[in-house]
Amino acid sequence: MAWTKYQLFLAGLMLVTGSINTLSAKWADNFMAEGCGGSKEHSFQHPFLQAVGMFLGEFSCLAAFYLLRCRATGQSDSSVDPQQPFNPLLFLPPALCDMTGTSLMYVALNMTSASSFQMLRGAVIIFTGLFSVAFLGRRLVLSQWLGILATIAGLVVVGLADLLSKHDSQHKLSEVITGDLLIIMAQIIVAIQMVLEEKFVYKHNVHPLRAVGTEGLFGFVILSLLLVPMYYIPAGSFSGNPRGTLEDALDAFCQVGRQPLIAVALLGNISSIAFFNFAGISVTKELSATTRMVLDSLRTVVIWALSLALGWEAFHALQILGFLILLIGTALYNGLHRPLLGRLSRGRPPAEESEQERLLGGSRTPINDAS
Protein backbone atom coordinates (compact mmCIF):
# COMPACT_ATOMS: atom_id res chain seq x y z
CA MET A 1 0.00 0.00 0.00
CA ALA A 2 1.32 3.45 -0.95
CA TRP A 3 2.25 5.86 1.82
CA THR A 4 0.12 8.93 2.40
CA LYS A 5 1.64 12.44 2.34
CA TYR A 6 1.43 12.53 6.14
CA GLN A 7 3.32 9.25 6.46
CA LEU A 8 6.01 10.49 4.06
CA PHE A 9 6.27 13.68 6.10
CA LEU A 10 6.72 11.71 9.34
CA ALA A 11 9.37 9.45 7.78
CA GLY A 12 11.24 12.46 6.41
CA LEU A 13 10.95 14.31 9.72
CA MET A 14 12.39 11.35 11.62
CA LEU A 15 15.28 10.95 9.17
CA VAL A 16 16.15 14.67 9.08
CA THR A 17 15.81 15.44 12.79
CA GLY A 18 17.60 12.23 13.79
CA SER A 19 20.54 13.17 11.58
CA ILE A 20 20.57 16.77 12.83
CA ASN A 21 20.64 15.52 16.42
CA THR A 22 24.02 13.79 16.08
CA LEU A 23 25.51 16.22 13.54
CA SER A 24 24.62 19.33 15.56
CA ALA A 25 26.24 17.86 18.68
CA LYS A 26 29.40 17.08 16.69
CA TRP A 27 29.31 20.52 15.08
CA ALA A 28 29.31 22.15 18.51
CA ASP A 29 32.28 19.97 19.55
CA ASN A 30 34.29 21.20 16.55
CA PHE A 31 34.12 24.89 17.49
CA MET A 32 37.04 26.75 19.06
CA ALA A 33 36.43 29.84 21.21
CA GLU A 34 37.86 31.74 24.17
CA GLY A 35 36.42 30.98 27.59
CA CYS A 36 35.91 33.00 30.76
CA GLY A 37 38.56 35.17 32.37
CA GLY A 38 40.53 35.68 29.17
CA SER A 39 41.42 31.98 28.84
CA LYS A 40 43.00 31.01 25.56
CA GLU A 41 40.97 29.64 22.67
CA HIS A 42 39.96 26.00 23.18
CA SER A 43 37.47 23.51 21.78
CA PHE A 44 33.89 23.38 23.01
CA GLN A 45 33.95 20.21 25.12
CA HIS A 46 30.99 20.35 27.49
CA PRO A 47 29.28 16.94 27.24
CA PHE A 48 27.28 17.20 30.46
CA LEU A 49 25.86 20.60 29.54
CA GLN A 50 24.94 19.19 26.13
CA ALA A 51 23.21 16.28 27.89
CA VAL A 52 21.19 18.82 29.92
CA GLY A 53 20.09 20.35 26.63
CA MET A 54 19.09 16.94 25.30
CA PHE A 55 16.89 16.34 28.35
CA LEU A 56 15.34 19.77 27.86
CA GLY A 57 14.39 18.61 24.38
CA GLU A 58 12.88 15.41 25.79
CA PHE A 59 11.06 17.42 28.45
CA SER A 60 9.36 19.43 25.69
CA CYS A 61 7.63 16.20 24.61
CA LEU A 62 5.34 16.72 27.61
CA ALA A 63 4.05 19.89 25.94
CA ALA A 64 3.38 17.88 22.76
CA PHE A 65 1.50 15.28 24.82
CA TYR A 66 -0.78 17.84 26.46
CA LEU A 67 -1.42 19.53 23.10
CA LEU A 68 -2.47 16.16 21.67
CA ARG A 69 -4.66 15.53 24.71
CA CYS A 70 -6.41 18.88 24.25
CA ARG A 71 -6.94 18.07 20.58
CA ALA A 72 -8.33 14.63 21.50
CA THR A 73 -10.89 16.11 23.91
CA GLY A 74 -14.28 15.04 22.70
CA GLN A 75 -12.76 12.52 20.27
CA SER A 76 -12.41 8.76 20.69
CA ASP A 77 -8.63 8.75 20.99
CA SER A 78 -7.85 6.57 24.00
CA SER A 79 -4.08 6.84 23.49
CA VAL A 80 -4.07 10.25 25.17
CA ASP A 81 -6.84 9.47 27.66
CA PRO A 82 -6.11 11.43 30.87
CA GLN A 83 -7.69 8.66 32.96
CA GLN A 84 -4.56 6.51 32.99
CA PRO A 85 -3.18 6.83 36.54
CA PHE A 86 0.50 6.10 37.15
CA ASN A 87 3.18 7.07 39.62
CA PRO A 88 5.67 9.46 37.93
CA LEU A 89 8.45 8.10 40.18
CA LEU A 90 8.31 4.92 38.09
CA PHE A 91 10.28 6.88 35.51
CA LEU A 92 13.06 7.85 37.92
CA PRO A 93 15.21 4.66 37.56
CA PRO A 94 15.01 4.69 33.72
CA ALA A 95 15.70 8.44 33.77
CA LEU A 96 18.86 7.88 35.84
CA CYS A 97 20.00 5.26 33.31
CA ASP A 98 19.17 7.64 30.47
CA MET A 99 21.11 10.42 32.18
CA THR A 100 24.19 8.26 32.72
CA GLY A 101 24.15 6.68 29.26
CA THR A 102 23.53 9.98 27.47
CA SER A 103 26.33 11.74 29.36
CA LEU A 104 28.77 8.94 28.51
CA MET A 105 27.81 9.13 24.85
CA TYR A 106 28.33 12.89 24.69
CA VAL A 107 31.76 12.43 26.30
CA ALA A 108 32.52 9.73 23.70
CA LEU A 109 31.34 11.93 20.81
CA ASN A 110 34.13 14.36 21.71
CA MET A 111 36.66 11.56 21.20
CA THR A 112 35.48 9.71 18.10
CA SER A 113 33.80 10.36 14.75
CA ALA A 114 30.07 10.94 14.33
CA SER A 115 29.66 7.91 12.02
CA SER A 116 31.45 5.51 14.40
CA PHE A 117 29.40 6.96 17.25
CA GLN A 118 26.18 6.19 15.37
CA MET A 119 27.25 2.69 14.26
CA LEU A 120 28.58 1.56 17.64
CA ARG A 121 25.25 2.43 19.24
CA GLY A 122 23.98 -0.72 17.53
CA ALA A 123 25.62 -2.65 20.39
CA VAL A 124 22.43 -2.03 22.38
CA ILE A 125 20.94 -5.10 20.64
CA ILE A 126 23.50 -7.40 22.28
CA PHE A 127 22.90 -6.25 25.83
CA THR A 128 19.14 -5.79 25.51
CA GLY A 129 18.84 -9.34 24.19
CA LEU A 130 20.93 -10.81 27.00
CA PHE A 131 19.21 -8.76 29.72
CA SER A 132 15.76 -9.65 28.37
CA VAL A 133 16.64 -13.33 28.79
CA ALA A 134 18.09 -12.83 32.27
CA PHE A 135 15.54 -10.43 33.77
CA LEU A 136 12.38 -10.63 31.65
CA GLY A 137 12.36 -14.38 31.11
CA ARG A 138 12.38 -14.04 27.32
CA ARG A 139 13.43 -16.83 25.00
CA LEU A 140 15.37 -15.67 21.98
CA VAL A 141 14.83 -17.51 18.71
CA LEU A 142 17.71 -18.63 16.49
CA SER A 143 17.53 -15.56 14.22
CA GLN A 144 17.92 -13.28 17.26
CA TRP A 145 21.03 -15.11 18.44
CA LEU A 146 22.41 -14.89 14.91
CA GLY A 147 21.57 -11.16 14.95
CA ILE A 148 23.53 -10.71 18.17
CA LEU A 149 26.54 -12.59 16.75
CA ALA A 150 26.39 -10.51 13.55
CA THR A 151 26.22 -7.32 15.61
CA ILE A 152 29.32 -8.35 17.58
CA ALA A 153 31.16 -9.02 14.30
CA GLY A 154 30.04 -5.65 12.92
CA LEU A 155 31.27 -3.85 16.03
CA VAL A 156 34.67 -5.53 15.70
CA VAL A 157 34.94 -4.39 12.06
CA VAL A 158 33.91 -0.80 12.87
CA GLY A 159 36.39 -0.73 15.76
CA LEU A 160 39.11 -2.08 13.47
CA ALA A 161 38.30 0.67 10.95
CA ASP A 162 38.80 3.26 13.70
CA LEU A 163 42.15 1.72 14.64
CA LEU A 164 43.40 1.74 11.03
CA SER A 165 42.12 5.21 10.15
CA LYS A 166 44.38 8.25 10.10
CA HIS A 167 44.14 10.25 13.32
CA ASP A 168 44.67 14.00 13.59
CA SER A 169 45.60 16.13 16.59
CA GLN A 170 41.94 16.44 17.55
CA HIS A 171 41.28 12.68 17.68
CA LYS A 172 44.34 10.73 18.82
CA LEU A 173 44.27 6.94 18.67
CA SER A 174 44.05 6.57 22.46
CA GLU A 175 41.09 8.98 22.54
CA VAL A 176 39.30 7.15 19.71
CA ILE A 177 39.70 3.80 21.51
CA THR A 178 38.47 5.33 24.78
CA GLY A 179 35.54 6.97 23.00
CA ASP A 180 34.51 3.71 21.29
CA LEU A 181 34.67 1.83 24.61
CA LEU A 182 32.58 4.52 26.32
CA ILE A 183 29.91 4.16 23.63
CA ILE A 184 29.79 0.39 24.23
CA MET A 185 29.56 0.97 28.02
CA ALA A 186 26.74 3.47 27.44
CA GLN A 187 24.79 0.84 25.47
CA ILE A 188 24.90 -1.47 28.51
CA ILE A 189 23.24 1.28 30.54
CA VAL A 190 20.73 2.01 27.74
CA ALA A 191 19.86 -1.71 27.65
CA ILE A 192 19.23 -1.65 31.41
CA GLN A 193 17.00 1.38 30.86
CA MET A 194 14.98 -0.42 28.18
CA VAL A 195 14.52 -3.51 30.36
CA LEU A 196 13.40 -1.34 33.31
CA GLU A 197 10.87 0.42 31.07
CA GLU A 198 9.61 -2.90 29.77
CA LYS A 199 9.27 -4.44 33.23
CA PHE A 200 7.85 -1.54 35.25
CA VAL A 201 6.58 1.22 32.93
CA TYR A 202 4.92 -0.22 29.80
CA LYS A 203 2.38 -2.26 31.78
CA HIS A 204 0.78 1.02 32.90
CA ASN A 205 -0.03 1.92 29.28
CA VAL A 206 1.47 5.41 29.55
CA HIS A 207 1.48 7.44 26.34
CA PRO A 208 5.01 7.36 24.82
CA LEU A 209 5.28 11.16 24.58
CA ARG A 210 4.33 11.42 28.24
CA ALA A 211 6.93 8.79 29.13
CA VAL A 212 9.68 10.57 27.17
CA GLY A 213 8.71 13.95 28.65
CA THR A 214 8.60 12.69 32.22
CA GLU A 215 12.02 11.03 31.92
CA GLY A 216 13.28 14.24 30.32
CA LEU A 217 12.01 16.25 33.28
CA PHE A 218 13.83 14.02 35.79
CA GLY A 219 17.01 14.02 33.72
CA PHE A 220 16.96 17.80 33.21
CA VAL A 221 16.46 18.62 36.89
CA ILE A 222 18.94 16.07 38.29
CA LEU A 223 21.72 16.72 35.78
CA SER A 224 21.29 20.51 36.09
CA LEU A 225 21.82 20.20 39.84
CA LEU A 226 24.85 17.95 39.30
CA LEU A 227 26.51 20.65 37.19
CA VAL A 228 27.28 22.47 40.47
CA PRO A 229 29.51 19.77 42.05
CA MET A 230 30.93 18.94 38.59
CA TYR A 231 32.27 22.52 38.48
CA TYR A 232 34.63 21.63 41.36
CA ILE A 233 35.47 17.95 40.68
CA PRO A 234 38.91 17.56 39.01
CA ALA A 235 38.89 15.34 35.93
CA GLY A 236 42.50 15.42 34.74
CA SER A 237 42.98 14.41 31.10
CA PHE A 238 39.24 13.72 30.69
CA SER A 239 38.50 17.41 31.18
CA GLY A 240 37.97 19.60 28.14
CA ASN A 241 37.95 22.97 29.94
CA PRO A 242 40.86 25.16 31.13
CA ARG A 243 40.07 24.57 34.82
CA GLY A 244 40.49 20.82 34.42
CA THR A 245 37.17 20.01 36.10
CA LEU A 246 34.49 17.49 35.13
CA GLU A 247 32.27 20.23 33.71
CA ASP A 248 32.49 24.04 33.59
CA ALA A 249 29.10 25.41 32.57
CA LEU A 250 30.28 29.02 33.00
CA ASP A 251 33.11 28.42 30.53
CA ALA A 252 30.53 26.98 28.09
CA PHE A 253 28.34 30.09 28.32
CA CYS A 254 31.39 32.33 27.80
CA GLN A 255 32.32 30.36 24.69
CA VAL A 256 28.76 30.62 23.39
CA GLY A 257 28.89 34.39 23.91
CA ARG A 258 32.11 34.65 21.89
CA GLN A 259 31.00 32.22 19.17
CA PRO A 260 27.21 32.51 18.57
CA LEU A 261 27.22 29.59 16.11
CA ILE A 262 27.71 27.28 19.10
CA ALA A 263 24.29 28.43 20.32
CA VAL A 264 22.84 27.55 16.90
CA ALA A 265 24.32 24.04 17.17
CA LEU A 266 22.98 23.58 20.72
CA LEU A 267 19.50 24.79 19.76
CA GLY A 268 19.56 22.42 16.80
CA ASN A 269 20.41 19.56 19.16
CA ILE A 270 17.68 20.47 21.66
CA SER A 271 14.91 20.97 19.10
CA SER A 272 15.87 17.96 16.96
CA ILE A 273 15.62 15.47 19.84
CA ALA A 274 12.08 16.65 20.59
CA PHE A 275 10.92 16.35 16.97
CA PHE A 276 12.85 13.08 16.54
CA ASN A 277 11.06 11.44 19.47
CA PHE A 278 7.67 12.69 18.23
CA ALA A 279 8.38 11.53 14.67
CA GLY A 280 9.71 8.15 15.82
CA ILE A 281 6.64 7.47 17.95
CA SER A 282 4.34 8.56 15.10
CA VAL A 283 6.18 6.40 12.53
CA THR A 284 5.77 3.35 14.78
CA LYS A 285 2.06 4.12 15.16
CA GLU A 286 1.28 5.11 11.54
CA LEU A 287 3.62 2.67 9.75
CA SER A 288 5.53 0.04 11.75
CA ALA A 289 8.44 -0.50 14.11
CA THR A 290 10.30 -2.15 11.22
CA THR A 291 9.98 1.06 9.18
CA ARG A 292 11.37 2.97 12.13
CA MET A 293 14.36 0.62 12.28
CA VAL A 294 15.03 1.07 8.54
CA LEU A 295 14.84 4.86 8.87
CA ASP A 296 17.24 4.74 11.81
CA SER A 297 19.69 2.79 9.65
CA LEU A 298 19.31 5.38 6.88
CA ARG A 299 20.08 8.05 9.48
CA THR A 300 23.49 6.41 10.01
CA VAL A 301 24.16 6.62 6.26
CA VAL A 302 23.16 10.32 6.17
CA ILE A 303 25.39 11.15 9.17
CA TRP A 304 28.29 9.24 7.64
CA ALA A 305 27.90 10.87 4.20
CA LEU A 306 27.65 14.41 5.60
CA SER A 307 30.60 13.86 7.95
CA LEU A 308 32.71 12.83 4.94
CA ALA A 309 31.44 15.74 2.84
CA LEU A 310 32.22 18.25 5.60
CA GLY A 311 35.70 16.83 6.10
CA TRP A 312 35.04 15.79 9.70
CA GLU A 313 36.45 12.31 9.07
CA ALA A 314 38.34 10.30 6.47
CA PHE A 315 36.81 7.54 4.37
CA HIS A 316 37.64 3.96 5.31
CA ALA A 317 36.25 1.04 3.30
CA LEU A 318 36.06 -1.18 6.41
CA GLN A 319 33.32 1.08 7.77
CA ILE A 320 31.08 0.08 4.86
CA LEU A 321 31.59 -3.60 5.67
CA GLY A 322 31.05 -2.98 9.39
CA PHE A 323 27.85 -1.01 8.75
CA LEU A 324 26.43 -3.71 6.46
CA ILE A 325 27.15 -6.42 9.04
CA LEU A 326 25.54 -4.31 11.77
CA LEU A 327 22.54 -3.76 9.50
CA ILE A 328 22.18 -7.51 8.97
CA GLY A 329 22.43 -8.11 12.72
CA THR A 330 19.76 -5.52 13.48
CA ALA A 331 17.48 -6.91 10.77
CA LEU A 332 17.85 -10.49 12.04
CA TYR A 333 17.23 -9.53 15.66
CA ASN A 334 14.13 -7.46 14.87
CA GLY A 335 12.68 -10.06 12.49
CA LEU A 336 12.97 -8.00 9.31
CA HIS A 337 13.66 -11.22 7.39
CA ARG A 338 10.33 -12.76 8.43
CA PRO A 339 8.02 -10.85 6.04
CA LEU A 340 10.29 -11.85 3.14
CA LEU A 341 10.35 -15.51 4.21
CA GLY A 342 6.62 -15.33 4.89
CA ARG A 343 5.93 -14.18 1.35
CA LEU A 344 8.17 -16.86 -0.10
CA SER A 345 6.49 -19.60 1.92
CA ARG A 346 3.07 -17.90 1.95
CA GLY A 347 2.97 -18.22 5.69
CA ARG A 348 2.46 -15.83 8.58
CA PRO A 349 5.28 -14.37 10.69
CA PRO A 350 5.58 -15.90 14.15
CA ALA A 351 3.62 -14.34 16.99
CA GLU A 352 6.68 -13.27 18.91
CA GLU A 353 7.52 -10.60 16.33
CA SER A 354 5.35 -7.99 18.00
CA GLU A 355 7.03 -8.76 21.31
CA GLN A 356 10.47 -8.17 19.79
CA GLU A 357 9.35 -4.90 18.25
CA ARG A 358 8.03 -3.70 21.56
CA LEU A 359 11.36 -4.22 23.31
CA LEU A 360 13.77 -2.84 20.72
CA GLY A 361 11.80 -1.16 17.97
CA GLY A 362 8.93 0.12 20.01
CA SER A 363 7.56 3.53 20.76
CA ARG A 364 10.62 5.34 22.07
CA THR A 365 14.32 5.74 21.52
CA PRO A 366 16.44 6.39 24.63
CA ILE A 367 18.88 9.20 23.03
CA ASN A 368 17.96 10.13 21.94
CA ASP A 369 18.53 7.79 20.08
CA ALA A 370 19.98 9.29 21.74
CA SER A 371 18.86 4.12 20.72
TrEMBL record:
Pfam families associated with the record: SLC35F (PF06027)
Annotated InterPro entries: EmrE-like, SLC35_F1/F2/F6, UCP036436
UniProt signal peptide: 1-18
Region feature (Disordered): 347-371
GO biological process, one term: positive regulation of cell population proliferation
Membrane topology qualifier: Multi-pass membrane protein
TM annotation in the entry: 48-68, 89-108, 120-138, 145-164, 176-196, 216-233, 261-281, 293-312, 318-336
Subcellular location: Membrane; Mitochondrion
Purpose: May play a role as a nucleotide-sugar transporter.
Record text on subunit structure and interactions: Interacts with SLC25A5.
Protein name, per record: Solute carrier family 35 member F6
Species in which this protein is naturally found: Pongo abelii
Gene behind this protein: SLC35F6
